[in-house]
Amino acid sequence: MELPAGGGPQRTVPATGLNSPYGLAFDPAGALYIADFDHDRVVKLPVRGGQRTLPVAGLRAPAGPAVPPGRDAC
């Protein structure tokens, strides 16, 4: 769900196939990163739409994505 800064109507974030989204992070461009705990992956939702799984191997129950200041993660 999106809650605009300063108020306004809320809307649903267009993510599909998530099972136990556990942690969220935003990069400076506004892309949303979601830790999909039960699917052992991190999903990126760019501001302009779309959804993609980040190419990270070996995750087990990710819970807290973080994005370095000043750049996107991928």
Would you spell out the secondary-structure blueprint of this structure?
Blueprint (H helix, E strand, L loop, with lengths): L20 E6 L5 E5 L4 E5 L6 E2 L21
Antiparallel strand pairs: 1-2, 2-3, 3-4
**What is the averaged pLDDT score?**
82
From the N-terminal CA to the C-terminal CA, the straight-line distance is 23 Å
Shape: globular
Task: Kindly provide the radius of gyration, computed on alpha-carbon positions and rounded to a whole number of angstroms.
Answer: 12 Å
Estimate percent helicity. Answer: under 10%
Please describe what this structure looks like:
The protein has 74 residues and is mainly beta. It has no helices and four strands. Strands 1-2-3-4 form a four-stranded antiparallel beta sheet, with no helix packed on it. Strand 2 (32-36) and strand 3 form a beta hairpin. The radius of gyration is 12 Å and the shape is globular. The two termini are 23 Å apart. The model has no long low-confidence stretch (mean pLDDT 82).
Briefly characterize the structure.
The chain is mostly beta strands and 74 residues long.
Brief descriptors of the model:
single chain; globular; mainly beta; 74 residues
